[in-house]
Amino acid sequence: MTASDAGPAPWTGRLTGGGSGVSVLVATAIVVADMVGVGVFTSLGFQVKDIPSGFSILLLWTVGGIVALCGVFSYSELGAMFPRSSGEYNFLGRAYHPAFGFLAGWVSATVGFAAPVALAAMAFGEYAKSVVTGLPPIPLAIGVVWLVSIVQLTGVRHSSTFQLISTILKVVLIVAFLVAGFIIGVPQPIAFTPQPGDLAHIVSAPFAIGLVFVMYSFSGWNAATYIIGEMNMPQRDLPRALLAGTLIVLVLYVALNAVFLYSTPVGALAGQLDVASVAGRAIFGDFGGRIVGAMICFGLISSISAMMWIGPRVMMTMGEDIPALRVFSKRSVSGAPAYAILFQLAVANLLLFTRSFEAVLDFIQFALLFCSFFTVAGVIKLRITDPDLPRPYRAWGYPFTPLVFLLVTGFMMYYLLTERLMHSLSGMLVMLSGLLIYAVFRRRPVAAGNSSHRE
Asked: Structurally, what CATH architecture does the domain formed by 24-443 represent?
């Protein structure tokens, strides 16, 4: 059988992580770690410029979390149906065609995770410099990526321990900041209950545009779908991990924005990029900026760890299906996809050295939204075309929850097309280039020894 008529490998009941199972707690930690980056610490300053209402701001973040939950329900249904690592590569290949899955996998495996890793690492270096003056950001960024990669190369067991500890530390530090903010902070004259005029803010264009950037902060809610094959009981644990992780982040995001507004004058926040540092100084005095910088540094380590774990699983799974990429499916003695990890490490380092990660992130945003949109649409498609397929988990609120997610994601794609047309078209070109590569790969015959990967 050739790769042209071979779909993704069928679920065999075997773990694809070398036999080491990932618990639902660790999977939840991956979701939390991947979601909580720097977005929530930088977005508020631009939102309060046009929406100077505490209630409207908290509602904005709540709506973002609800939309993310709508995506969670759909991804959980697909993940329970097709419990194989690699996220959209697996889902789109199953719901539509292997070529569609390859396009998503191509973006994710090349720059889809490497660029956010580089951005998070660079942010780590910049925040570390604010904590200890004189530290060089680039060497620090490269060093943290290498450190996390070495941990990933040691295998799932050590990766799980590192991920769990680093994520718990992140959450503890954020909760400590929240408690300190509400206890020590000087209350500001802002109301978190509905006020006259809030309705006008909620139905305004700034609210809709603000939701676009809030959704970027919530991206990562699907992180556990990239390691389904390594879970102990994927049909049960994946929905739990996605739901628990997203709910935790929703609570943290709403609480963080509440403490920023509660402790800091709106005028001091408006237009500021680093609202967390502004709030930190308002709560703790001049030393507050360093406290917040240290908190974000620790948090970014867990984010980088999560992305360095889940990203290589896309290339690993593609290597299981595609002969030309088979080297990336090879695992070390400890079960780590070593070549796939080293590939993502090399790309992230290249992006850091060339300072091109921000440009890459700009032009892949549309492609990533495009893949998420059609993944959720795939739930509706399969309900119609294959109603008898076993569904260990069925999306809660169907068909309303998928439709809500599609509506908001469609608006985000429309916004990018109108505001960043060239960036969006560049992202589509990256995806379309995958078609050419897929056309080459699909003509390669599958070795007889790999027949177990084919249907």
From this structure: Up-down Bundle (1.20)
